[in-house]
Amino acid sequence: MLTFEKLYSMGHEEVIFISEPSCNLKAIVAIHDTTLGPALGGTRMWPYASEADAVEDVLRLSRGMTYKAAVSGLNLGGGKAVIIGDPKKDKSEALFRAYGRYIESLNGRYITAEDVNISVQDIDNVYTETNYVCGIAKASGGSGNPAPYTALGVFRGMEASATKVWGSRDSIKGKVVGIQGVGSVGIELAKLVDEVGGKLIFTDISDDNIARMKEKFPHAEYIAPESFYTANMDIYAPCALGATINDETINQLKCKIVNGAANNQLKEDRHGQELKDRGILYSPDYLINAGGLMNVSIEFEGWNDYKSRRMIDTIYDTTLRIFAMSDERNIPVNKATDRLAEERLESMKKIQTTYLGRGSDHRFPGSKVRHNKL
Ligand code: NAD
Fold first, then answer.
1. How far is the CA of 128 from the centre of ligand 1 (A)?
2. What CATH superfamily is the domain 147-342?
3. N or C: which end of the chain has fewer CB within 10 A?
4. 181 Cβ inside 6 Å of ligand 1
């Protein structure tokens, strides 16, 4: 059950339940923290087994967005929304337009975008009713598919890891990179690794995606999912599911680096320390997969590819900074990433005590959505 105690403990500002029976809209918006700016995060549509599951998911995901924006140097807060329903049966123009009207009524405290099971077409319906939405189609002046930008960020993280482990970002050349999940992001990552001369191995469970990968990269070796963790590779790139670093898999890994797009790769926090103890460098997952978020944030100032890529390039430096922090404080990378995000949030909270005078519209330092290089 949603209680104030729960909201206090997780740090949420506001949770909104949206209901429109005429089109069967049941949505929950969670605004976690707006210290840095308006809360931005996608909308997920899922046939949750219970409303309690939907609440749990939206609280967890919105909190993650606060950390992701903070560590990425974005002047954005953390938020997320879920629509309870079956994406195959329950979608309609009315549902997404009704949803858009409620998002509009939040006056910009929450800005939405695509997430699991939400298409660009759905977002375009939301956009008909509100401007507080991004990830809209390129044809409508938006940034389109985020996957190539997410992959670019993951690749910048990989270069930072290669610099730390082998001395230079070029050292990916000749190394074996194992991509687990060659979907939207995985295949784009494969392209970038291939371009610099990395050797590709991969796994997947979708016959279509395996065939697409084989066609594009005939020299890439396919490994069955159950044998993937024990395969010889220098870099393991999880691009399918979360929690793949766990008690079972950690003993099997032979790689020097874990660097992929998947969210929440560590099953538990302690697995970050275990990777460190084993001399495996772990890239900060929610930083290196923030390329998609960075890309949509550019829509507020007029999206273009160059600006987006330039912002995503900063992931290289931020990742190196987190590695240095992890060494200096002798804490695992996942903890160092959390600290960097929390320290930025704390310091920005402190400067908000200044009275700005009447008529100022700078309610938040992030009211102009810009990127601050950390
Ligand atoms: P996707 O659904 O397009 O691709 C996932 C791929 O993983 C699919 O090909 C699927 O068949 C495969 N897969 C699923 N289970 C598997 C298993 N057990 N073993 C091997 N392969 C398996 O998803 P995506 O958009 O490429 O995202 C990949 C990951 O990155 C997800 O965890 C997602 O949350 C995260 N992520 C994506 C973005 C983005 O911009 N798309 C941004 C941030 C984070």
1. 29
2. NAD(P)-binding Rossmann-like Domain (3.40.50.720)
3. N
4. yes
